[in-house]
Amino acid sequence: QKEVEQNSGPLSVPEGAIASLNCTYSDRGSQSFFWYRQYSGKSPELIMFIYSNGDKEDGRFTAQLNKASQYVSLLIRDSQPSDSATYLCAAGGGYQKVTFGIGTKLQVIP
Amino acid sequence: SAVISQKPSRDICQRGTSLTIQCQVDSQVTMMFWYRQQPGQSLTLIATANQGSEATYESGFVIDKFPISRPNLTFSTLTVSNMSPEDSSIYLCSAEVKNIQYFGAGTRLSVL
Prior knowledge:
The structure holds two protein chains of two kinds. Chain A is an all-beta fold. Chain A starts with a strand and ends with a strand. Chain A is globular. Helix content of chain A is 0%, strand content 56%. In chain A, strands 2, 4, 5, 9, 10 and 11 form a six-stranded mixed beta sheet that branches. In chain A, a hairpin with a 2-residue loop joins strand 6 (54-58) and strand 7. Chain B is mainly β. Chain B is built from no helices and eleven strands. Chain B has strands at residues 4-7, 10-13, 19-25, 31-37, 43-50, 56-57, 68-72, 75-80, 89-97, 100-103, 107-111. In chain B, the strands form two sheets. In chain B, strands 2, 4, 5, 6, 9, 10 and 11 form a seven-stranded mixed beta sheet that branches. Chain B has a four-stranded antiparallel beta sheet with strand order 1-3-8-7, with no helix packed on it. The mean pLDDT of chain B is 94. The A-B interface holds A 32, 34, 42-46, 49, 88, 90, 93-94, 97-98, 100-103 and B 1, 41-43, 45, 48, 92, 96, 99-106.
């Protein structure tokens, strides 16, 4: 059973701080990793994807992948109240089924 | 990316009836997916729908309960049949474009 594990939270950070969201996955064969943001009552929206070990930056967001440790993270710099949402980590894609984690609820406190 | 239109956005249905959810993609895609999301839970894959072949169902989901059509490369439907209150959930369709899944807005289903 392929699994993606996340702490469900909530993770509370003050406005302007760095939010760090973490995820581990069980399938060493996973090649693609995704972070989706889901606002309450809305569908998941892609934030970042990463395929290679290391960091990938896009604006205030940085995805980090460590395949040896089977670990994926998402850093959100200068967190804003509008970043308050549930963040879903996912692994797989292409010819592999995508497995989603339960999501981490992030609360950015003004 | 892909823009996915899903309808209805919500519905309230009576026990024993069926509901068909439609999903339209703005480009041709090979793989489409149907998920269910219970409140506070993650996404559970119901089935994968590839054009020109039968849908592939995940463990715990059967074709008689969740028949799926995929008549062309831009459209798919999911029917929730003989509904019971346990089917109350959010149903999401997604399409894969360049290895990335994009989601429709979802259908919030309540069964009385």
